[in-house]
Amino acid sequence: MDLAYLWFWIIGFLFIGYFVLDGFDFGVGMSLPFLGKDDVGRRQIINTIGPVWDLNETWLIVAGASLFAAFPEWYATLFSGFYLPLLLILLALIARGVSFEYRHQRDSLQWKKGFDTMIVVGSAVPALLWGVAFANIVQGVPIDQDFEFTGTLLTLLNPYALLGGLTTLLLFFTYGVSFVALKTDGQVHDDARRLAARSGFLTIAVAAVFLLWTVLAHPGLPVMVLAIVAALALILSVGANLRNREGWAFGFAAVTVVAAVGTLWFALYPFVMPSSTDPAFSLTIENASSTDYTLTIMSWAALIFLPLVLAYQGWTYWVFRRRVSRSHIEKAAAQAH
Fold first, then answer.
1. What are the protein's UniProt keywords (predicted)?
2. pLDDT range class, residue 105, cuts 50, 70, 90
C-alpha cells in the first residue's frame, strides 16, 4: 500500500481514538446540570474522568501533528478555512481543562458554580463543532484551484453540517452519561441510567437521519455497513441501559462512535477535502500528502511509539477502573475539614 494511503487510515484511527476517549469526557461534562444535585454529586461526576481526561486529549494533539506532517496541504486548507470553529474548540478545551484544575481550589459555591459552567460549555462546544467540521469536510466546501477555502462561516452552517453537529452533541452526551452510570453509585448512578435512556431515544432518531443522509450522498458498501453497525450499536446501547447493564451500554456506545466516525472516513475516501466549487480542485490523498521520505520516517515512529501509547493508556484505565463512590468523597471532604 502507498504510504500516503496508509497514513490516511492511520489519521482516521487517531481521530476515532480521540472521539472514543474524549467523546465520553464531553458527555460527562455536559451532564453536570442534569445529574449533579449537590456539590458532592458534582464532584463524583467530575472524578469519573479526573485521572484520564488530559490523557484522552493527547490523541487530538497526535492526530493534529500527524495531519500536519503527513498531509500539509490538507492541514493548511483545513485550518485556514475552518479557523474560527477550530479556534472556538481550542478555547473551549482550554476553559474545560482550567476548570478541572481550579474548581476545587476554594470552598466558595459561587467559585465552583462558575467553573462548573465552564466545564459544561467547554464540553458542549467541541461536541457540537466537531460534528459540524467533519460533516463539512465530508460534504465538501468551496475550494479554488490554489486549494484555498473561498467560503465564509455561514458556508459551514449548512443543514447537513448542523445535523452532524447535533448528532455528535447528542451522541457524546448519551455516551458520557452511560459512562457516569458505569463509574458511580448511589443517586448519581440511578439518575444517570434514567437520563441515558431518555437521551438515547432522541439520539437514535437524530443519528438515524444523519447516517441515512450520509449513505445516500456517498453510496458504497463500507459506508452502508458501518452506518448500519453504528445504528444497531446505538440501539443495543440504549437497550442494555434499560436492562441495567451499564458496562454493555457503554461498550455499545463506544462501538457506535467508532462506526459513526468510520462511516464519515470511508465516505471521504479517496478525498481529504472535496471541493464543492469544482471536483478538479479537490484535495485528494495523493495531491495533499508529504514526500515518501517524510512518510517513511513517520511510519517507523508510529510503529515504535503507538503500541507504547496504547499500552500506557490501557494500564491507566485499569488502575482507575473502580467506581467513584459518594461515601468516599464525603469521607475525604470530612477529613479535609
1. Cell membrane, Electron transport, Heme, Iron, Membrane, Metal-binding, Transmembrane, Transmembrane helix, Transport
2. confident
Burial class of 306 by CB neighbour count within 10 A (0 to 12, 13 to 18, 19+): middle
Enumerate the domain spans of the chain: 3-336
User: What's the rounded Cα separation, in Å, for the pair 272 and 8?
Assistant: 8
Compute the distance between CA of residue 253 and CA of residue 118 in angstroms, rounded to an integer.
Answer: 25
pLDDT per residue as tens digits for the range 236-267: 999 999 999 999 999 999 999 999 999 999 99
Cα 151 from Cα 137, distance rounded (Å): 13
CA distance 198 to 294: 48
Could you read off the pLDDT of 170-212 as tens digits, one per residue? 999 999 999 999 999 889 999 999 999 999 999 999 999 999 9
User: In this structure, what C-alpha cell is assigned to residue 162?
Assistant: 448542523
| Whether 240 contacts 211, CB under 8 Å | no
State the amino acid at position 301 in one-letter form. A
CB-based burial label for 229 (10 Å; 0-12, 13-18, 19+): middle
**Residue 284 DSSP symbol:** E
Residues in the chain: 337
**How far, in Å, CA of 142 to CA of 183, rounded?**
44
